[in-house]
Write a structure and sequence with these properties.
single chain, mainly alpha, elongated
């Protein structure tokens, strides 16, 4: 197994995972803040991938991860708002 393949499970899910569940754990933080956190995490992962041999960085991945973070935060916001009513 190469180094880049060994790191794949650690790098691929990083941006999306915290932003899917974190808004439910910290409901006082806005959707836009969680989207920014997802964007920052995605940029960090893409920058690391650009430095790893055998891996490449792609701006489309960063955009997709950011949109996923925004969608996850929005769904969490809707769930939390429905619970309050």
């Amino acid at each position: 197994m190469s180094l880049s393949m060994g790191l794949f499970p650690l790098t691929a899910p990083v941006p999306a995972e915290p932003c899917c569940s974190a808004p439910l754990l910290r409901p006082g933080i806005s959707v836009s803040t969680w989207t920014a956190v997802g964007f920052g995490g995605s940029l960090l992962v893409e920058a690391c991938q650009a430095l790893l041999p055998g891996r490449f960085s792609n701006h489309v991945d960063a955009v997709a991860n950011t949109l996923s973070a925004a969608l996850g935060a929005l769904v969490a916001w809707v769930v939390l708002r429905a619970r309050r009513q």
